[in-house]
């Protein structure tokens, strides 16, 4: 693969960062990088982009997004291969991500045409009978977008699509581990007619990121990533809009009246999709004591059938983690948990960046694997004795994106949806479900704003909550990761 192109208008030194294939370890590209000294030039280009973006009509913005969606759809296999090569997702998972990115851009095009504002009925108030008014949604200006490695195409589309639809310029800082899909997406937007100064791609270290975040010209920072980085951004940003998705530690409750075959299949998929590197991935499964042994045995058996290996092989269920260091760190966390009393049921084997799907039980509540987002193919099984006990355990963590509950009783489902502290609550599905048009975001500490195109475009002063019933197809004949 040839070296990536330099963002227009940016003076670069000779520094480059290699991009590695997580499975083979080979260098697949070298990306030019900048340091904090380039911030002035970057911001100057973004100011030009702001003026250009604001001048684009809604029809022009929508047409660009529609054409880009069409181009990506036509080149879907090429985009999927690129995702595999830089992120290690399996080819089947990468194809699904491409399809979702097409949908995200199409949704953004639709919102560009209709998210205009509304008429205010002044004459409904005494003293204003002869007045009329309206408000419109206007561009913020320059938005800084910082994205992680785990969805290198669609999460970038979720930042760029709504921003472009709203008439904004963007400074995009993709993950240094997976910048290539982002660069190709921006190139595709430009091919579709987007003026090149509207999106400036910046590859560099935390210094250039901090300089951009702190700049007064930047009116909003949209960040997806870890809590520590999110806290640092909030301290640096100053007075501006912040939208943050800071991860989760998703619980799923399996009641004694649940369809266990469906629950096992859904939770295996939810726990190990994308090698567990998934902010809504199922991490803690709380199972009614009456059915705990049956669920545990079936879950472990199904997990052990998963094929781990080459992500380009369509038979592979679980590909590599993003780096060998990430896999080694995961094993160290599991070893620590076992030393503290956890019982290893399967997995915890490492070969390079490949980490075997791992199931634990009897994990102490003080253990980091119980308390924190593990972001790896590791899941914890835990029995509960009552519905109230399950809710208490599920809500014990300080941050939350999604949760799930399996039950055949409507009253239990509705009670769980009311009591679970999560941004999205999936009924009869694992936590790992997201549709790109739905409101998406966390519910407790550190969560600000919503994604989901329409919800990203509008102000969201209150935390939204989504109840999403979903009924999965019948049980699978072998252990394959599936996703709606």
UniProtKB/TrEMBL annotation:
Zinc-finger recorded as keyword: no
Higher taxonomy: Bacteria, Bacillati, Actinomycetota, Actinomycetes, Kitasatosporales
Pfam families according to UniProt: Aldedh
Compositional bias (Basic residues): 467-484
Domain of life assignment: Bacteria
UniProt keyword annotations, A-Z: Oxidoreductase
Gene3D superfamilies noted in UniProt: Aldehyde Dehydrogenase, Chain A, domain 1, Aldehyde Dehydrogenase, Chain A, domain 2
Molecular function terms from GO: lactaldehyde dehydrogenase (NAD+) activity
Segments of this protein annotated with the region Disordered: 1-21, 459-484
Record bears the keyword Transmembrane: no
Annotated Aldehyde dehydrogenase domain residues: 15-456
InterPro entries: Ald_DH/histidinol_DH, Ald_DH_C, Ald_DH_N, Aldehyde_DH_dom, ALDH-related_metabolic_enz
Coiled coil: none
Name the record gives this protein: Putative aldehyde-dehydrogenase-like protein y4uC
Organism of derivation: Streptomyces afghaniensis 772
Annotated family: Belongs to the aldehyde dehydrogenase family.
């Amino acid at each position: 693969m040839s070296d990536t192109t330099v963002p227009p208008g940016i003076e670069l030194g000779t520094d480059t960062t290699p991009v590695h294939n997580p499975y083979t370890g080979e260098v697949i590209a070298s990306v030019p990088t900048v340091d904090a000294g380039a911030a002035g030039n970057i911001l100057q280009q973004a100011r030009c982009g702001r003026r250009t973006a604001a001048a684009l009509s809604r029809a022009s913005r929508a047409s660009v997004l529609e054409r880009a969606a069409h181009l990506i759809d036509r080149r879907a296999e090429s985009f999927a291969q690129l995702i595999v090569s830089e992120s290690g997702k399996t080819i089947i998972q990468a194809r699904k991500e491409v399809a979702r990115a097409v949908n995200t851009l199409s949704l953004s095009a639709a919102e560009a045409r209709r998210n205009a504002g509304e008429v205010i009925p002044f004459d409904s108030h005494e003293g204003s009978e002869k007045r009329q008014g309206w408000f419109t949604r206007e561009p913020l200006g320059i938005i800084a977008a910082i994205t992680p490695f785990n969805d290198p195409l669609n999460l970038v589309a979720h930042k760029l699509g709504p921003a472009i639809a709203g008439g904004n310029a963007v400074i995009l800082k993709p993950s240094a581990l997976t910048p290539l899909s982002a660069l190709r997406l921006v190139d595709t937007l430009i091919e579709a007619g987007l003026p090149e100064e509207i999106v400036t791609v910046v590859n560099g270290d935390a210094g250039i990121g901090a300089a951009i975040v702190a700049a007064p010209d930047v009116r909003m920072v949209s960040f997806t990533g870890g809590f520590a980085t999110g806290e640092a951004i909030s301290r640096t940003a100053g007075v501006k809009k912040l939208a943050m998705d800071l991860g989760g530690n998703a619980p799923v409750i399996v009641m004694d009246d649940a369809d266990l075959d469906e629950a096992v299949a859904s939770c295996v998929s939810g726990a190990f999709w994308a090698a567990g590197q998934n902010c809504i991935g199922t991490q803690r499964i709380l199972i009614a004591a009456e059915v705990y042994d049956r669920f545990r045995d079936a879950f472990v058996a199904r997990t052990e059938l998963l094929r781990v290996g080459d992500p380009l092989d369509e038979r592979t269920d679980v590909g590599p983690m993003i780096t060998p260091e990430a896999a080694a760190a995961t094993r160290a966390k599991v070893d620590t948990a076992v030393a503290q009393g956890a019982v290893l049921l399967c997995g915890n084997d490492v070969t390079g960046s490949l980490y075997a799907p791992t199931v634990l039980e009897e994990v102490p509540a003080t253990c980091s694997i119980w308390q924190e987002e593990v972001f790896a193919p590791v899941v914890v099984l835990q029995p509960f004795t009552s519905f109230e006990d399950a809710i208490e355990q599920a809500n014990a963590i300080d941050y939350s994106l999604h949760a799930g509950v399996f039950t055949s009783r409507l009253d239990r489902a509705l009670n769980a949806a009311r009591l679970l502290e999560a941004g999205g609550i999936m009924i009869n599905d694992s936590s790992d479900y997201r549709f790109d048009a739905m409101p998406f975001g966390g519910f407790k500490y550190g969560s600000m704003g919503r994604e989901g195109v329409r919800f990203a475009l509008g102000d969201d002063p209150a935390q939204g909550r989504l109840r999403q019933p979903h009924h999965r197809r019948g049980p699978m004949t072998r252990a394959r990761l599936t996703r709606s």
